[in-house]
Each structure stands twice: as structure tokens, then as C-alpha cells.
């Protein structure tokens, strides 16, 4: 289906391009492309300084106010608009047909979805899924009694979204057994560093075939495990169905139903398609991928890079520094991810570059906020104590140095963040050290031909 859609897209583009290269040209010039006759009116294809005298004379005559304006240009404009409109309509019709053919009864068959965690993103996804079908039971397993009461009695998460009313079919509970009983899908929104211990405590209530959709981004500090490894190992079930959900998305904008695009990654293609159909809506576009490693590594390390970007902002180092640092950080993430088996295209896609741009440049990012406050001179302990959300990049930064050593990858920017968090460096000293590194052009071996860059930091 996707290949056929791509073929149709290319056909429409070629149809439009062939029109512009032949018919439109002929209409504008009133002559064949190979004709040496002079057009009756100067067009955008004619250079003023290279027109012959006769051409200039004809042009001046044709533009005389006493002569009627030729219809050739207006006709060509109408034809150009028509051909683009026809090509676009073909794409839209095929897109609708493709969606209707690929649609299954996944949503119709789904009766219950459980969300593990009552944080901002878990709440936003619970509301999103609940809005997909009014008859769907959405259970949120939370640990805060106040949040539980607020969701059930006031239909609001008083801690994160006090001004947003949740759908009626979202119900909070502190009973793990009741929440997980007969669930069709599980959205895991527990912070990475607490996931293993939490899952071990509820493992006896988890059905071996229950698909886990991980919303958590990060690496476990001591073990360097990703969620794709943490979940099945904590549940003692290596065959536990797993899907990673990632991409540029803030919980607040998802709650406001603003257009959002994300990626679901799973080694089980059928499962990825089912989750896509479960979550996709008019304002949430879901793509599928089989590169779980790439999606998870990019989602984890972009938080560390966002802390670095925040420090540049907090220190008022300017836009030049910001662009250099983020681009260098993107390269470091790509080097490590590909060494770990990820696809380079994943790192440059939605769950990679897309998520990096959002997290590094937008004030809603809590990891970027940590960096801004560090760059302004605040102590990390005071920053974390004042936050009501977890900044995963702080913990994940500790895993960066170990990963860089394990895979023999030089990661100066991300390593500097880890050293700042560990109080080995101050932000100002880190900038001085990075700027003092050798300025050489590195071209890597032919085994990695897509890497050729100037190492500027």
C-alpha cells in the first residue's frame, strides 16, 4: 500500500512537472521550446539585457496601454492552477482510499486501555485515547491520592492540567490489579529510572500478551538499558509485546488537540500497525518504524542535548553558539546510535531531529529549562527540588560517558553535560574546554561514508 501511494505521488509530481516544462512553456512563449522566434511579450524566461532589438520593440508594442493585454499569461496561470489542483485531488482521493482499506476494527475491538503513571504525558495520552471512543474504558494507575481524587471527582489532573477537563471515561485508580485486569493495551508513562522497580511490583497482574506502549524516554543509569529491555526483563517475560512511542510532542499541545506527528517503533510490524490505528486521529499522525534502537536512543539523548542548549541560552552565548552546539550534538547522537545498530534515517527523522529541535529550542521543554537555570548559575539540587516533573536528561547524562567508552565514540558536547551535572565542570569552564579542542577536518573511513564534517567545537 505504501509503495503504491509513493508511486502515485511521484506520478502526480511528474505530471505537474511535465506540464510546467512543456505546455506552460509553450503557452508563455507562444512557440515550441526549440523555436527561435521571439515571444510576443517578455516573460520570466526572458532576460532583459539579452533581448534582441526586435524583441524589445515587439515587447514595447505589446505592452502599450492602447493595445489589449494578451490572454496567454492568464490562460497559462489558470492551466497551471488546474493541473496542480488535479494532481492534489488525486493524492487526496488515494490517501482516503488507502486509509479506508488499511483500517481494521482495532479501535472497535478495544475495550480497555491502562495508563501506568499520572504525569503530564501519561495524562495527555489517556485523554487522547479516551476521546477516540466514548465507550472505551481508560484506567490511569497513579500513586498520588490527591491526583486520583481530582481525576475521578473533578475530571482534572490537579497537578499538571488543572484547567483541562478530562473525558468522562478516564478513571484513576491506585489499585494495580484492577487497573491491569482485562486491559487490551498498556501505555507505560513511568519515568525510566523508576520503571524496573515499579514493573516488578505489578508483574503478577500483567497478562503475558498485553502490549506495552512505552512513552518513557531515557536510559537506566546503572545498567544502560533502554525501555525495550527494561520492560520484558522486569516482567520476566522476554516475549512481552513492546512498542516505543516517540516524536516531537509536548503534552500541553496534545491536550489542546494541536496537530502532532509521532512514531511507533516495534520489531513486530503487525503490532506497530495496530497501535498506529489505535492512536492515530485527525490531529495525531502516527508513522511506524522497525528501528526500536534508533527511536529509543534518539529519544533518550535528545534530553541531554536539550540541557546543553538550555545552558547556552542561560549564559547568553548567542545564536551562533546555539546552532553550533545543537548541530554537533546531533552528530554525536547519530554516531552513537549507528554504532548501536540504529539506522541513520531514524536519527534524521521525526523521532530524531524532529524531537531534538522541539526539545532544544522551545521553552516548554523541562530539560531545556534545567539547562537554562544551570547556565544562569543555579545549583542543580535547587533546580530539581523546585520542579514537579522529572527531567530525564539529568539521569540519562550519567549513562553518556559509559556508552561513549563502550562503543568508542567521541561525544564532547554530551560528555560535558554529564560532567557538569556531576560537578566536575562549571558551564563556563565547559565552554572554554570545548572551544579549545583541536579545529580539524575529520573524514571517517569508507565504512561510514555519510559522515564528513568539520569538527568546530
From TrEMBL:
One Pfam entry name: NAD_Gly3P_dh_N
Domain Glycerol-3-phosphate dehydrogenase NAD-dependent C-terminal residues, every copy: 291-431
Cellular component annotations (GO), alphabetically ordered: chloroplast; cytosol
A molecular function GO annotation: glycerol-3-phosphate dehydrogenase (NAD+) activity
GO terms (BP aspect): carbohydrate metabolic process; glycerol-3-phosphate catabolic process; phospholipid biosynthetic process
The protein's annotated pathway: Phospholipid metabolism; Lipid metabolism; Membrane lipid metabolism; glycerophospholipid metabolism
Keyword Electron transport belongs to the record: no
PROSITE patterns, A to Z: NAD_G3PDH
Top-level EC class: oxidoreductase
Entry's EC annotation: 1.1.1.8
Keyword Lipid metabolism: yes
Disordered: annotated span: 28-79
Residue ranges of domain Glycerol-3-phosphate dehydrogenase NAD-dependent N-terminal in the record: 112-271
Main subcellular location of this protein, as a coarse class: plastid
Keywords assigned: Chloroplast, Lipid biosynthesis, Lipid metabolism, NAD, Oxidoreductase, Phospholipid biosynthesis, Phospholipid metabolism, Plastid, Transit peptide
Polar residues biased stretches: 28-40, 46-61
Cellular compartments annotated: Plastid, Chloroplast
Enzymatic reactions: sn-glycerol 3-phosphate + NAD(+) = dihydroxyacetone phosphate + NADH + H(+)
Family: Belongs to the NAD-dependent glycerol-3-phosphate dehydrogenase family.
The protein's name in its UniProt record: Glycerol-3-phosphate dehydrogenase [NAD(+)]
Native organism: Clitoria ternatea
Source species taxonomy: Eukaryota, Viridiplantae, Streptophyta, Embryophyta, Tracheophyta
